[in-house]
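retry 2 of 3: previous attempt timed out while embedding manganese (II) ion. Reduced batch size to 1 and resubmitted. Inputs unchanged:
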Amino acid sequence: YRHGEASEVVVNTPDGPVVFGEHHPVVVVAGPCSVENEDMIIETAQRVKASGAKFLRGGAYKPRTSPYAFQGHGESALELLAKAREVSGLGVITEVMDAADLDKIAEVADMIQVGARNMQNFSLLKKVGAQSKPVLLKRGMAATIEDWLMAAEYVLAAGNPNVVLCERGIRTFDRQYTRNTLDLSVVPVLRKLTHLPIMIDPSHGTGWSEFVPSMAMAAIAAGSDSLMIEVHPNPKKAMSDGPQSLTPDAFDRLMQELGVIGKAV
Ligand code: PEP
Ligand code: MN
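retry 2 succeeded.
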């Protein structure tokens, strides 16, 4: 069980430090699943910033089920994230899949994401633990809470205390109407078990944009410290995860609704 106060994870961004933690405003991370081109990432950055997001997310290296699916634009996407970071002032969060890419990702990213599929890639966890950028650790889709906390422990044990835990839905028996089952019960459970800050990702958690706003609000009501929301300027044309992506307008409405229930931005 947790001993003592909740931790604060401070992430430096061009606009200044952003704090994740129980006693701080809800931090919202928004952006497309994948960085597709310069126009879309800059436009998304500017729109989500105007709505109150503090971080831009976007994949350069994508973990796709099929090897024939779009795998991300890699290094050129990192350059576009650097540009979007510069023009928007937002912090950047992007995923590392291969430790060989870690240094060049850490040059651009303010926070490094370890995805659900790599949650128990222990050699990768040791390497993100041995560098200094804060880490966003997504829950594996079949990981128990114990598995997840022990994965976080790998990062902490390697010397990096700055870990945020992100619930993104787990596999249950029904995939007909939802992509995953968003486990919102982890919010109070993690609060009891760990001092680390909590993020909820209702985009991957549900798989459908129409379900994202209610689950985002529920996450805040449950006490989540932060949210990750996929946003794309034209979800129908997205190269990955279009069905679960909000338009910038829908994201803006959600941010206003989150303000209504209290703790947001
Ligand atoms: C993502 O954030 O785009 C992603 C691939 O997430 P997850 O690892 O949770 O599937
Ligand atoms: Mn995605």
